[in-house]
Batch of 2 targets.
Target 1
Amino acid sequence: MNIRSTILLSLLTSSAEAHFRVPFPGERNATNWDTQTISPCGGDNAVVFPRYEWNPKGSPVEINYHHMYGVGAIYFCGSGNCTTGADFNELIYEPVDQTKGNFCIPAVQLPEKYNKINSTGVIQIIYGAPGKEDGEYDFMYNCIDVVVSNDGPTFDGQCSNSTEFAEADTVEIRCRSQS
Ligand SMILES: *[C@@H]1O[C@H](CO)[C@@H](O)[C@H](O)[C@H]1NC(C)=O
Ligand SMILES: *[C@@H]1O[C@H](CO)[C@@H](O)[C@H](O)[C@H]1NC(C)=O
Ligand SMILES: *[C@@H]1O[C@H](CO)[C@@H](O)[C@H](O)[C@H]1NC(C)=O
Ligand SMILES: *[C@@H]1O[C@H](CO)[C@@H](O)[C@H](O)[C@H]1NC(C)=O
């Protein structure tokens, strides 16, 4: 079972407590609290214009994560209409353990074949957090609509990592393959 089938299962176990935001550069819908557990894109399935300009060298992403712990990963959809979870088939940031607070990735780079000036696509950030039952996970989704441009930002201190819960124990969650 891969993450996509896990995501479908998670629809049945969605939790209203599931939250994260993308303060930089921003996201499709910063108020999708009630639908953030719906794949893909936290329930918002249409491109929001204008798209965020994405530097071919990679642009920064700031995630503000509200759970005590979880695992986050970033996917990309570069072709098709990006309306199903399966469309987001390019992993662009490997799953990483995360505690509550700010997580700042200085340069998220798009896959080479889509990293061409004026190419458009959708970045999807997915978090898995422990659910109410042991071995259960709640998944959360937010998307960023992008267009590749030399005017896209590169890292210049737009965000920083928080140390708020740095000493908290992290749990290992097999976000990618729960086989
Ligand atoms: C954002 O998502 C919420 C549902 O959680 C919805 O009510 C609202 O209309 C959405 N906003 C936009 C701008 O799409
Ligand atoms: C998205 O693409 C799929 C597969 O080509 C198609 O079935 C679906 O109608 C498309 N949706 C929209 C909103 O264009
Ligand atoms: C990108 O799009 C802009 C605006 O449409 C256009 O002026 C420019 O020539 C395009 N650049 C490339 C490399 O396609
Ligand atoms: C935040 O932490 C991640 C993971 O350790 C690291 O890759 C990244 O460079 C850090 N961000 C900043 C702005 O230092």
Target 2
Amino acid sequence: MRLDLTQISARHPAARTGAPPALRPLDLAIAEGEQVAIIGPSGAGKTTLLHLLACALPPAAGTLRVGGVEPWHLPRRELQKLRGRLFLAPQTPPLPPRQRAVTAVSAGRLPALGLWASLRSLAYPSDIPAAYEALDRFGLGDKLFERVDRLSGGERQRVGLARALLAPARLWLVDEPLSALDPTRARQAIGTLVGEARTRGTTLVATLHQVDMALAHFARVVGLRDGALAFDLPAREVTRERLERLYAQHEHELAGAPPAEEPASAAAAPAVMHCR
Ligand SMILES: Nc1ncnc2c1ncn2[C@@H]1O[C@H](COP(=O)(O)OP(=O)(O)O)[C@@H](O)[C@H]1O
Ligand SMILES: [Mg+2]
């Protein structure tokens, strides 16, 4: 799905009056089937940009086109249909506690199913082999029937990503997909995600905390700082100097080691469920 942003600006819904906009007027075009990484220090506007692309947040100004149409000019029903054709993986995946991994992953299919088939699939996941296959791609084949609130944060994050493989979406938007993963798992997960997107011709936009992963796995990297585009370049042209400028005063984020994946335990915090 192609994406076109023209002079787009955005404000966080909870921002106080007078606060600077989360995104200043920016232009960005992403072609159908392209894979793009968005990097930049905390507060740069990466999540806001993803929420705009997911049609979850209306722009404050400018023109947004998703798949050639202006989502906020569509009738409500058409807007819902468009949202069903894209996949947003929030940083904390919306996994209801007590749900089994197989059901959570199968939920990726819901937009493609009718109401009754959806309800039935929540009680009796119909395509268990497909759910297994998706989980296995993220190293979780053995967790098929595990309850998600018994998984570690990193495992839950990977369940959230495995959903993409079953989603009937032409656009994947993933927010910091590796934030809870150790370096080996992170490399595997981003390799799977980018590889699958490329094979399927699915557009992928991922915000990433790990700059090295962005440069290694994506052909195109966009740097965002203070709500503005700092650069939009082929990965091989992103020099150390550019990165140092992008992360000035946030050097620890550029140098920061990724977290070690927490061990699975029954005491793992319950997954928080977000509705949008
Ligand atoms: N919960 C919030 N309440 C008010 N303003 C917010 C909130 N979250 C984000 N913002 C504003 O939006 C800006 C961009 O935030 P965000 O898109 O989350 O950045 P990033 O994902 O790059 O860390 C922040 O600098 C802040 O000004
Ligand atoms: Mg963010």
